Amino acid sequence: MKLSLRFLVPAILFAALAAVLAIGLRHDPNRLPSALIGKPAPSFSLESLGDPAWKVGSSDLAGQTWVLNVWGTWCPPCREEHPTLVAIASENRVPMMGLNWRDDRTLAMRWLAQLGNPYVSVAYDPEGRTAIDWGVTGAPETFLIDANGIVVRKYVGPMTMDIWQKEFVPLLPAGGAGR
Amino acid sequence: MIPELGHFALILALLLSTAQAFFSFGGAARGTEPWMAAGRTAVVGQFVFIALAFGALAWSFVERDFSVLYVASNSHSELPLFYRIAAVWGAHEGSLLLWSLILAGWTLAVTAASSSLDAPFRSRVLGFLGLISIGFQLFMLGTSNPFTRLMPAAAEGLDLNPLLQDFALAVHPPILYLGYVGFSVAFAFACATLFEGRLDAAWARWTRPWTLVAWLFLTIGIALGSWWAYYELGWGGWWFWDAVENASFMPWLAGTALIHSLAVTEKRGLFKSWTLLLAISAFSLSLLGTFLVRSGVLISVHAFATDPERGIFILAFLTVVVGGSLLMYAWRAPRLKSSAGFEVTSRESFMLFNNALVVTALSLILLGTLYPLFMDALELGKVSVGPPYFNLVFLVPMLPLLALLGVGMHAAWKRGLLAAMRTRLYAVAGASVAASAIIGAAAYGEVRPMTTIGFALAIWVMLSSLLVPLVRLRSRQRLPAAVLGMVFAHFGVGLATLGITGVESFKVEKDFALGIGDGVTIAGYDFKYAALRDVRGPNYNGVEADVVVSRRGEPVAVLKPQKRHYNSGGNPLSEAGIEVGAARDLFAALGDDLGQGRWSFRLQYKPLIRFVWLGAILVALGGLFAALDHRYRRRVTAEVRDAAAAALP
Known about the structure:
- The structure holds two protein chains of two kinds.
- Chain A has five helices and seven strands, in the order H-E-E-E-H-E-H-E-H-E-E-H.
- The longest helix of chain A is centred in the N-terminal third of the chain and has 23 residues, at about 5-25.
- Chain A is an alpha/beta fold.
- Chain A has one domain: Glutaredoxin.
- Chain A has a five-stranded mixed β-sheet.
- Chain B has four domains: about 1-165, Four Helix Bundle (Hemerythrin (Met), subunit A); about 195-305 and about 330-415, no CATH class; about 420-505 and about 615-649, no CATH class; about 510-605.
- Chain B has helices at about 1-30, 35-60, 70-75, 80-85, 90-115, 120-145, 165-195, 200-230, 245-270, 270-295, 310-330, 345-375, 385-410, 420-445, 450-475, 480-505, 610-630, 635-645, and strands at about 510-515, 520, 525-535, 540-550, 555-560, 560-565, 575, 575-580, 585-595, 600-605.
- In chain B, strands 2, 3, 4, 5, 6 and 7 form a six-stranded antiparallel β-sheet that branches. In chain B, strands 1-10-9-8 form a four-stranded antiparallel β-sheet.
- Chain B is flat.
- Chain B starts with a helix and ends with a helix.
- At the A-B interface, helix 1, helix 2 and helix 3 of A face helix 10, helix 11 and helix 12 of B.
């Protein structure tokens, strides 16, 4: 009953594959340090989701700490995190801007009407240009930008209260004086 | 209430799968019939409850219950009933449920048809199938529950992806899954065999029809997907080598190698360990494919968010199933000795060539599919591997494969090729090359090297397939269903090769901006944009153009391409207008509204493209004939009983 090396080859090849997949899983999503961390937030000026005549931009919230959340109605995890975003917004500690990514205006408006709107304003990015500037690889992604316009935190994947408390709240200005 | 019942049924199904595995393995180990019988009862129960769960989800779709998150995400009140049902498997959670249902169905079929097998062996097969069921049901309940409620309920659903609102794509997943999941039977047989450490001809004969049926469903599923991509995506291509297609094509290639290798194992007792490895590979690749596609691990780079929890579960499951079976293989396979010689020109050799070439193509496609993932994981940058690579690595092994196929069909087991047969084959080969050059020159006005090679190989394969029944009938031999199946399948391969060569050599694809009344000429056909009108469907609005096609002044067809806007929003969808013909398709797709009545059009001339799918249908039909061969039913039972009797002390 000795193991023959020749017959072990398939198992060894598979182990290598599994290892790479494991690295890929760990590497790819959540805590991937963004190249943006510590750098100024890329500026943008886009049409507002609700009103094409109205511009929404990165300078709107300059001078205060703010959150940018990238979402789309096509993205099930965005639906998953939405109640959390609504809960965060209801605490009124920090303004949150939405970046509606590669989506449809009507669908997105319906989504906000149905599920609640946690955003102070939503920028509409159907082509995904701005999302590219921000290094977005998947939705949802959430960025924290400080009062100096520096990106201080990025989280990829559905936001949870736990992650918000642990990773974002400590970076908010003391006293919760968002607005 | 109904969704909760569905959820509960799913939990019960998981418990019954666990019972199925536990009592089957336990009963086989202890040799107690009541335990094994309990395992079989659990199989029935598992099927019933997973069917109930599936029914509950279907009911939620039919009744438009938008308080179920999955329904709200994939349906819409205006969605027609047929697509509301098809939407059950329109996304991740529901397709897992379909997977699980089909697996339970296959398990039930194996249970019903295997009473002639050695009892402990039969039990172990059911045990391994039970383990797979457990994995899938745990995955669903743990990370992808289709019955999750949405509170408060949505007033309106987000709609099924309009691309999926199409007949071919609605039936595509169930057929494809019948194939994917069907390989689990061969897999479970291989695992049980490895576990017991003995393999006889009866094993191969038992596995063959199951593998053939799974393989033929996979063939139809892939062909449907290709046909759908052709008319629905609006590009007019029939194969794109994208990760999703490769995920279905790789198990198909492994299955193709497996059905050939099984033939050798059955007839000659050779290639035993190799056949087992292929049986493991075919199912492992099905699993890998389903998961890569459905989990978003592979496509995360493009669009969908990765869900780490699902990814980890998937990887753990893959590791247990694939890693476990391969370790068992490494442990047991060295025992299985094949010790018979054969001639270089015997059928065994040709089967070996077949396996070597198919597995080479498979490995290179696997490499190309996973390469971007490797590079990304190892932080070597993001790369993408495109069609030029896949075309090359597929074509190079396929050319010798087709050439050898024509000979291999006529080679006898063990002995080799008869002299009389050699002479006939030389004549067929000569005729094929001549016919190829004539077709190229006469029909398309040129002789190109690759085209000539392609046509010659296609004709060679078709003619030498037809030679099989001719020779047999002349020498008054029987023509069993299995042989007929081989002839059909190989003729279909030739036909598909003819189509692929024709369309890839002589297709014309051009984009034009046309105003009403404008005309262009491609490949000798005059296309004229004649009119534009509004159309309205059950859940969409759009425009339809009339493109009048004529040739040398004679009217040929009026193509009616559409551009649809679904009421639920999303990107507009193009429906191509296609005039189907045996010799060529004429294809028109509407692009964008350029203003002032002008539209961009994609116009195409596709010679012989129908033969690609017709060939695939013949291949599947061949598989069906072979699977129905009556020797699988009669002799199996007798021989297995003999073997079982001999095994008794």
